[in-house]
UniProtKB/TrEMBL annotation:
It comes from plant metagenome. This is Uncharacterized protein.
Amino acid sequence: MVPDSRASVLLATLATEPQARRLFLALLRDAVVAGDGGRFPEPDPAYAATPVRAWYVHIDGGGQLESYFNDAARFRPYHLPPTGVLTRDAYPFLLFEDAPGPLRFAGVSREFWGIIDYLGNLPYA
């Protein structure tokens, strides 16, 4: 994990929210890299010191996520953007440090976190 990154905040949140932690780990375990979203233009100066790269991830929700991905208020429309192009509200992605060496987790996108919220609000989640 990248120190002092969005991932640090995420881990603090997951430490206090067991349902979100369970869903996050389940989604992460089943996520498959689908494409390279390029450099993430960090809008928050607190996290801008470390360059990070967006990696689009495919998440197969076993049919549970179709209505989430087809919701026009969330995705405009749901699609995998071209390689190297970061497009918001198109596909879930994770952030990783963009540097040589070991892969270090830097955060999740709102598109990815939205899946956790969606699943957490289902009556049987």
